[in-house]
Amino acid sequence: MTSAHPRIAAVVIGRNEGARLRACLASLEDASPVIYVDSGSTDGSAEHARSTGARVIDLDTSQPFTAARARNAGLAALDRAETDLVQLVDGDCTVEPGWLATASAYLKAHPDTAIACGRRREDHPEASLYNRLCDIEWNTPPGDTSACGGDILARLSALDAVGLYRDDLIAGEEPELCVRLRQQGWKIHRLDAPMTRHDARMTRLGQWWTRTRRAGHAFAEGAHLHGAPPERHWVAETRRALLWGALLPLAILIAALVHPAALLLTLIYPLQVARLAARRGLASRAAWEWAAFTVLGKFAEAQGALQFHASRLLRRRATLIEYR
């Protein structure tokens, strides 16, 4: 950063976010310029963003939409001579008051850090079990970390140095970006500070399953890209998904065809739920919910991982996996 007060821009991406986008843009009053990248909204999102003074970029609908492609379009539109830092945020999130000041101060004091992120919270964890699971998922430990999510404050120069996001990824583009940043010596840091509020609006099992399947796809593709030593990016996550969600069920089924007593082996799944719940306290309902859906999620993750490998072998381009 070359100025005493870093110049902070914002890039917002979204599609049909409605009131959530309006709240998102209103929360970015300390950033300038604000660029909104729209992926084919039909609810007037682009028009509203223009009315607030944001610059709007409408993605070309002839090419497949990805969040990475949208973020890159917004980043490419920034004036490098006028921008030090950029807040990237999804249109279904609002930036917490004070976050930009806190995160920019950290980056100013730590010139070896490319990205600062903080605590993303779910707006309505009480509304559904699936919202609560999201809130738990995002509560990762503060400190230097290997990856981040979609909401970050980043040095624009660092993102430029690694070629921005891979815009062909349908999921997992943020951790993949972090791999390349760390390979160039940059650090990623999670502050113990509120960063954004998110509105998942997940109320159905099918939504959660689709979102988790997308994670499995991201695991497999990440391992395919950066699974070699020393990085081993998402190799363990992919192996766990395939073991618990595909290989073990298949082995039990084959064994049961030989002798029905082999079906008793399915008891390994409730035992695994209990083992995971014990980590967070067996008396806690939240611990049991998290453990049960962690185990169940391995089946969805395996489906996503197998989907990635099938598409890769058949040379088919992956398409978005959307849960809303």
Explain how this protein is built.
The protein has helices at 19-26, 45-51, 67-76, 99-109, 129-137, 156-161, 173-183, 205-226, 235-258, 268-280, 285-313; strands spanning 8-14, 34-38, 55-58, 85-90, 93-95, 113-122, 143-145, 152-155, 187-198. It folds into two domains: 8-201, Spore Coat Polysaccharide Biosynthesis Protein SpsA, Chain A; 222-313, no CATH class. By secondary structure, it is of the alpha/beta class.
Question: Which characteristics define this entry?
Answer:
alpha/beta, 2 domains, 324 residues, 46% helix
The amount of helix comes to: 40-55%
Distance between the termini: 38 Å
- Report the order of strands and helices: EHEHEHEEHEHEEHHEHHHH
Largest sheet: 9 strands, mixed
Residue runs with pLDDT of under 50 for 5 or more positions: none
Shape: globular
Structural class, by secondary structure, is: alpha/beta
Q: What's the rounded overall pLDDT mean?
A: 95
Text of the CATH class of the largest domain: Alpha Beta
Short structural description:
By secondary structure, this protein is α/β, with parallel strands linked by helices. The protein is 46% helix and 17% strand. The mean pLDDT is 95.
List the helices and strands and how they pair.
Blueprint: E1 8-14, H1 19-26, E2 34-38, H2 45-51, E3 55-58, H3 67-76, E4 85-90, E5 93-95, H4 99-109, E6 113-122, H5 129-137, E7 143-145, E8 152-155, H6 156-161, H7 173-183, E9 187-198, H8 205-226, H9 235-258, H10 268-280, H11 285-313
Parallel strand pairs: 1-2, 1-4, 2-3, 6-9
Antiparallel strand pairs: 4-8, 5-9, 6-8, 7-9
Helix pairs in contact: 7-8, 8-9, 8-11, 9-11, 10-11
